[in-house]
Structure to design on (221 residues):
């Protein structure tokens, strides 16, 4: 397990304290490295089981780390200074209409199996049925491990369901949000920032990102 700290000492220390608190709860040891986004981009990370990225509440710096993690083959969690200590007691999983949403099932299941976490699936409030179908795919995977979960429909559509989850995290008493990263950055993402940056900046809890690459994940244990 690895914590990658931003070179800013204040940010690094604040987030390191949170990770040390988490390590004590899990009876695990975290390795801590201070690394720039450029160094992260060329450093192999695939042997790590869990990665936290401690970054400042700064759009430009956060985007640099988002750019550096787009090829990671494992999920990665952003932790900012204002966010609460990371816990794994209640996992919130917003679900949109994209096919790769089902890839989040194995990670939600892992928290349920090994951390006894409560899982809430939050399908988008769409006119179509694709988000609902993706939610049922995730639910079917959770059923394989007889995990308990809730399905609570979000207020926003597929284009804003991740932001909706971040805004409702306190109300729903969530400890961690799992979202898919953008497949590609379009013009709006380049000008205004991708959805994942907005979610991380708005979320009061850590945000785990899963890169939507079909050759990286399979729904198997």
């Amino acid at each position: 397990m690895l914590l990658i700290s931003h070179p800013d000492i204040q940010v690094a220390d604040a987030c390191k304290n949170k990770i040390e608190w988490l390590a004590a709860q899990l009876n695990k040891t975290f390795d801590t490295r201070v690394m720039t986004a450029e160094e992260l981009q060329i450093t192999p990370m695939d042997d790590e089981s869990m990665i936290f990225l401690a970054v400042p509440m700064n759009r430009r710096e956060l985007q640099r780390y988002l750019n550096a993690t787009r090829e990671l083959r494992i999920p990665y969690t952003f932790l900012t200074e204002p966010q609460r200590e990371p816990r794994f007691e209640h996992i919130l999983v917003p679900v949109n209409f994209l096919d790769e949403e089902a890839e989040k099932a194995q990670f939600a299941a892992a928290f349920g199996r090994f951390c006894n976490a409560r899982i809430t699936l939050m399908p988008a409030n769409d006119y179509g049925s694709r988000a609902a179908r993706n939610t049922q795919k995730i639910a079917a995977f959770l059923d394989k491990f007889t995990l308990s979960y809730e399905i609570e429909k979000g207020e926003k559509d597929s284009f804003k369901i991740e932001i909706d989850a971040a805004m409702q995290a306190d109300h729903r008493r969530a400890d961690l949000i799992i979202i898919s990263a953008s497949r590609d950055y379009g013009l709006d993402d380049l000008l205004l920032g991708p959805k994942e940056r907005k979610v991380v900046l708005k979320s009061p809890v850590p945000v785990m990102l899963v890169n939507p690459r079909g050759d990286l994940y399979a729904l198997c244990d």
Observations:
- Confidence is low (pLDDT under 50) at residues 216-221.
- The chain is about 35% helix and 20% strand.
- Strands lie at 2-5, 31-34, 51-55, 76-80, 90-95, 118-123, 149-151, 176-180, 207-210.
- The CA atoms of residues 18 and 85 lie 5 Å apart.
